Amino acid sequence: MYAVEITNLTRRFGEFTAVNAISLKIKTGSIYGFLGPNGSGKSTTIRMLCGLLAPTSGDATILGLDIAKDSEAIKHKIGYMSQKFSLYDDLTVIENLKFYAGLYSLSQPEGKRRIAQMLALAGLENRQNELAANLSGGWKQRLALGCSILHNPPILFLDEPTGGVDPKSRRMFWDIIYTLSQAGTTIMVTTHFMDEAEHCDEIGFIYNGGLIASGPPSALKSSINGLLLEIPTPEPMELLAAITSRQLPYLDIYPFGANLHVLIAEEHASRYTPFAANLISPSLEDVFVHLVKSHRKEVLA
Amino acid sequence: MITLENVTKTFGKQSAVNGVSLEIASGEIFGLVGPDGAGKTTTIRMLCGLLSPTSGNLSVLGAANPEAIKHHLGYVPQRFSLYGDLTVMENIRFIGSLYGQTTDKINALAANVLNFTNLLPFKDRYADNLSGGMKQKLALAAGLMHKPTLFFLDEPTTGVDPVSRREFWQMLYQLNKEGTSIFVSTPYMDEAELCTRVAFMNEGRIISSGSPQELRRSYKYQVFELSTPDRNLKARLKSSGLRDINAFGEKYHLVTDSSPTAITTVKAALAAANISITDLNEISPNLEDVFVALASEVN
Predict the structure, then answer these.
(1) A284 neighbourhood in chain B, CB within 8 Å
(2) pTM over the 0.95 mark
């Protein structure tokens, strides 16, 4: 069963093609990670799916409803939270929730029940009378999420929900995404953090408006040919310069935190024994370095 | 090269930067990391002379007022501030003339910085039509037009793809090799690992600073990396005496207070629930572990 089905979805702004014939399917109850650099078309796609923007061509259905014809019906079935989700700074936590409960026309007992659930989900029970303005980034994001799912939507679109929050809050936010997913919500989420993408059931990577790869994280990882070596070093940039100047054979080489990652052909493995390199399986960050470069045809073949 | 002594900046009742003291030497790549609203941009703007501290002292290249040594400073703000309806080359020449350079000098420098940032093939493209990563490279190029000795960059790689991010850092590294000191803010911990020194900022304060190695060494706990197909780990291990459980990509980092029994308890709990362990090893903490712990302590 697919909650979202997209076929050749395209959106042009004047001569600029923001989204170029994207086709993808999202299984009901799964977490779909939608990745790509700024300006690649992620938000435009999500805005079309939410009925906020009409496609230039192509089709999409959400729970069987057509985004072109049934956009009003779709709005009741979806939650949408962007990084710039508008909370009212001069309202308290509980007042914000009550306001959104009113917008979604929840009955009073239903509103009360859902608000209590959202406070618990976001860990905000003890802060319900604080002004939203006084919450730090991570708390604000969780309140915004609570507001956007008060009407219990079966599908949730999250557009860069963790941009600009601290590393601990990012993880707390993902714990909530898991909880929702396990309760059956279908989630489409965009992020710039590849470690977050690892938590998704399926990934789509969009680049210059086109979908250049998709599949479960494990399938994307096994699509890289060659051996990936990790060389731990306190000076990744120095080591990179040293290896490139020695003209050792490699397919690709780049810093990776306090390590250097080198992608090599199998027959060249022995050349790297002096570096105490570990053979590792690629992370999604490696996958996307590879995808972007292959797309730009920069990986040495 | 840069000294901050107890520097505070308040906006009305809100203190954006609160008693920050830092010392940054010439030749460093200094990384300021922390969440949005931590005070990173305000700090950078004070160091560039765009804001004055409410209290405390600062000195940049020996000057108490950075305004006086402005021609030695480069600044790439967080938001792209070049002209979308000018081409790459036009933007660069415009910035060059703002710095009062002669036409010959501008032409020579423009060719040089565009070559350095790999933008030469795109010199006639409108800035509006550049990708996010290329826009950031153009902002970097513009900041280099007066050959600054000290370069401030405010989250230059936010929203940039993983390859452009790395290319950008190669350029910073190259600049640093050629003698430019760099002060950069970033939300990415893997980038923080590439700095010579890092300070972690939260709610206006510096919580910790040092070289990446020093920061890792200052970490007080033990980290075990667990690979398991189980997705419900947090709930399952709630009562196993761990200090923290954090997802790291597809793996989990289990944090213990160096208690020898914690991991035995974890193994027993997972075995009882019939959860397979693909891998479980003690690892040395990375900067992300360090900052997750610091952020938890503050909250």
Answers:
(1) 249
(2) no
Give A301→chain B minimum CA distance, Å: 18
* pLDDT, tens digit, 9 for 90 and up, residues A59-116: 999 999 999 999 889 989 999 998 777 899 999 999 999 999 999 999 999 999 999 9
Provide the β-strand partners of residue A59.
Answer: A7
The answer to whether residues A188 and A4 touch, using CB atoms and an 8 Å cutoff, is yes
Interface contact A292, partner B, CB < 8 A? yes
Residue B264 structure tokens: 């035995």
In terms of Cα–Cα distance, which of A232, A210, A201 is closest to A291? A210
Displacement of CA A127 from its chain's centroid (Å): 28
A170, A215, A291, A292, B226 from A220: Cα distances, Å: 24, 6, 10, 13, 22
**Strand-pair partners of A297:** none
Instruction: Show the tokens assigned to B51.
Output: 């804001």
- Domains by residue range for chain B, with CATH: 2-215 (3.40.50.300), 219-298 (3.30.70.980)
Nearest CA in chain A to B162: A289
* Chain A touched by B249 (CB under 8 Å): yes
Q: Please give, rounded to a whole number of angstroms, the shortest distance from the CA of B19 to a CA of chain A.
A: 19
